[in-house]
Amino acid sequence: MTSKAQLRAGHKTAQAVAKKSGGNPDKVRTYAGERLDGERLAKAWQDYVAGDRQDLTLRNALAERFVPLVRQCARTLANRLPQNITAEDLCSPGYEGLLQAVDKYDPTRGTQFSTYAPIRIRGCMIDWLRENDVASRLQLTRLKVWKREAELLMHRFGRPLSVEELEDELG
After folding, report:
1. Distance between CA atoms of 9 and 23, rounded to whole angstroms?
2. Which of 15, 40, 105, 168 could form an S-S bond across to 25 if both were Cys, CB 3.0 to 4.6 Å?
């Protein structure tokens, strides 16, 4: 059973959180710590867009609802990358992409957020990979072509080629 003092303390906490984040204390009590599904999720989007996207508490509540999308995108992308890049490495830029998706999402367009967000999340992850890659895209493309040609030569000769033979064949 909740006492009046606990309710007042909860209200003061909601006000403090809202004041720090620039949000509405009533919305903090409404959305913080609750599962946003179905009608509650639609109402949260409606409140967020109607509030001119200024309520950071509501934005964070919406983002928390879709954190599993970030982990899913990170695991999917990490499976196609070298083993030295883990899904955990990709989660940080993914969270940034999730926040961008929450800020840019337009529910009036008729698409679901769970369809829209992975595109932005993956895009931020790929941008992060490109920024932190040692080789340029041109170098990576040349390396891919060189490896493909080396494989074709190896099949043609029926054995692995030495470095000198590859240099002679590839120029």
Report:
1. 18
2. 15
Residue pair 92/74 in contact (Cβ under 8 Å)? The answer is no
Give the residue with greater pLDDT, 38 vs 72.
72
Comparing 10-14, 21-25, 82-86, 94-98, the range with the smallest average pLDDT is: 10-14
Nearest to 90 by CA among 63, 123, 139: 123
CA–CA distance, 48 with 107 (Å, rounded to integer): 11
- Of 1-10, 27-36, 88-97, 133-142, the one with minimum mean pLDDT is 1-10
Average pLDDT of the segment spanning 113-123: 95
What is d(CA 39, CA 159) in angstroms, rounded to the nearest whole number? 64
Nearest to 71 by CA among 53, 86, 55, 56: 86
Helix (H) or strand (E) holding 145: helix 137-157
